[in-house]
Amino acid sequence: MLVTKLIFAIVMLSVGSAAIADELVLPQHNSGDSSAIAALPQKGQTMQAVMRAFGAPQLKHAAVGGETPRHPPITRWDYAGFSVFFEHAHVVDAVVPDHPPPVYHSEQLQAASQ
After folding, report:
1. First and final CA of the chain: distance in angstroms?
2. What pLDDT, on a 0 to 100 scale, did the predictor assign at position 24?
3. CA torsion angle for 51, 55, 61, 65 (degrees, to 10)?
4. Reading across the β-sheet that carries 74-79, which strands appear in turn?
C-alpha cells in the first residue's frame, strides 16, 4: 500500500511539473530585407576587403579576448545600419541590429523534455 502511494505521488509530481512551460516566440522574418542582407560582408572576408567594399567604419571597437588560442581576439566595426565582427582579421559575422536572421525549419522544433 505504501509503495502504491509513493508511485502515485511520483507520477503526480512529474505530471504537474510537465504542465509548466515557457512559450517560445519566434520573430517574423521580413523577406523584403533580402537586398540589405546580401550587401553585408561575407564570412571569411578580410578586414582589408571589407574596408575596400564598405569604406572606413563609423566606429572601430577595441579587440576583446586574445589571451589564449582558445579565445581569439574579436573585433567589431560599426557601419551605418550594420556591424561586422572579426576573428583576428577575418569576418565571422555581420549583423543588422534589431533584425534577427530567419529561423529555418521552425516546424521541426520540439518541446524540450525534462
Report:
1. 29
2. 61
3. -10
4. 59-60, 74-79, 82-87, 90-95
Tell me the C-alpha distance between 71 and 31, whole Å.
Answer: 35
Interatomic CA distance for residues 65 and 62, integer angstroms: 10
**Structural contact between residues 114 and 108, judged by C-beta atoms closer than 8 angstroms:** no
| Distance from C-alpha of 28 to C-alpha of 106, rounded to nearest angstrom | 11
Amino acid at 71: H
| 72 in Cβ contact with 88 (< 8 Å) | yes
The answer to whether 83 touches 95, Cβ cutoff 8 Å, is yes
C-alpha gyration radius of the chain: 23
The grid coordinates of residue 87 equal 576573428
C-alpha pair distances (Å), 47 with each of 36, 73, 83, 90: 20, 14, 13, 6
Beta bridge partners of 77: 60, 84
Q: Specify the amino acid at residue 61.
A: H
pTM of the model: 0.62
pLDDT at 85 over 70: yes
Which amino acid is located at 59 in the chain?
L
